[in-house]
């Protein structure tokens, strides 16, 4: 599964550094036009993913996830292959929309591993799994930038589709899914309707906020993604732009790779919410100086620090859900969590493109920083009121009774 995630993560990020540059090849467009369409084309994939992901999660709870992973790889591979033949903004837009039906390979693999991993080591295991996609994310932009400079943008899409198909083959022949699970409680063996799952989420304020934070974090993080290559061009120039854009993307991946497993292991030891709160504030602080960089290397350093902070947010979030949700509903709960992430992926690029078009790219960094710090504050307040303070009151009553 690690290698399958590596290939999917690398394949999908290969095209990110030059997506906006690919749009420029379709015609003589203004900068504002390209920035806005970059946001919509990048984000529309997650629009359909937002709708379909909970459905895939519920199907996975009933019938297993291996076959779903194979279908996901085939659908994404076909979509990316056809993107290499697109010759208009609208064709690229609709192909990205179609790809969203099948997007979710990596979250689906995380759900597969999470539901079959003991709670005590979930953070470490999920952090290790994430290093597969992160390593792909790290190498993908660099290879994508090199391929684009050597062979052109359309040919790169065709090469990328091959590696996505390879991921499906790895799952088909290399993964054996264990459909039975060891239950820790009667809830783990029970069957829940979708209404009962939603009521369970709403009835746990901390888990509800953890899931809502998924959307806010993605809005913040993805607001800069589709226009990062344009920002690199502004501060560095047009020479080898695809390569240097890939370097800026990969710097965040390197920081993520180095710390994802460590953050997960720390969450196993001291608590996932504590780690999550710290990382949200750290990411918000790191994002802010990005608006003031004057050369590519300053941006690369900040992207590396951002990767360190972002690296633990996904594994500790999923590990917390693994800890709190009964086993028999975890696929659907994780599906809703992923769906909220995709909602953020829709809003983020559109928001980033609009902000960049109207106020300049620096404004995107300011808004992103504020959203992450706000997320950290909301998470801290909710955790303190409903978890930490409650435990302190129970402890005080227990002490006074003796």
Automatic annotation (TrEMBL):
Location of the protein in the cell: Cell membrane
One MF term in the entry's GO annotations: transmembrane transporter activity
UniProt KW Transmembrane helix keyword: yes
Alphabetic keyword roster: Cell membrane, Membrane, Transmembrane, Transmembrane helix, Transport
Topology versus the membrane: Multi-pass membrane protein
Transmembrane annotation, as ranges: 37-56, 68-86, 92-113, 159-176, 197-221, 241-259, 271-290, 296-320, 340-359, 365-384
InterPro entries referenced in this protein's UniProt entry, alphabetically: MFS, MFS_dom, MFS_trans_sf, Tet-R_TetA/multi-R_MdtG-like
One Pfam family, short name: MFS_1
One GO location term (cellular component): plasma membrane
Domain Major facilitator superfamily (MFS) profile: 1-387
Protein name: MFS transporter
